[in-house]
């Protein structure tokens, strides 16, 4: 398995707004080959620190998703978000091969 974490910081007072956006996400990734799971995580101590976790069967499955037109479509929508403060946030990305479960 292969997992990707995208961590980003938003102002604490906008965390719930971002969470609602993700609760209503398009679910395009759910249809990607090898997709296993999506999670949105919120830091217990810092509510404005949010992490998207994606889990795929293989690294190749993730890379195919990241190169797909659906991936580009989702990320183009983010750039057009009305709140420019949120639209300009660049996440920190970490990628891992799962070596034990």
Automatic annotation (TrEMBL):
PROSITE patterns: ABM. Residues 2-90 form the ABM domain. Keywords: Monooxygenase, Oxidoreductase. The keyword Oxidoreductase applies. InterPro entries: ABM_dom, Dimeric_a/b-barrel, Heme-degrading_MO. Coiled coil: none annotated. The keyword Cytoplasm does not apply. One of its GO terms (molecular function) is monooxygenase activity. This is Antibiotic biosynthesis monooxygenase. It comes from Pradoshia eiseniae. The lineage of its organism: Bacteria, Bacillati, Bacillota, Bacilli, Bacillales.
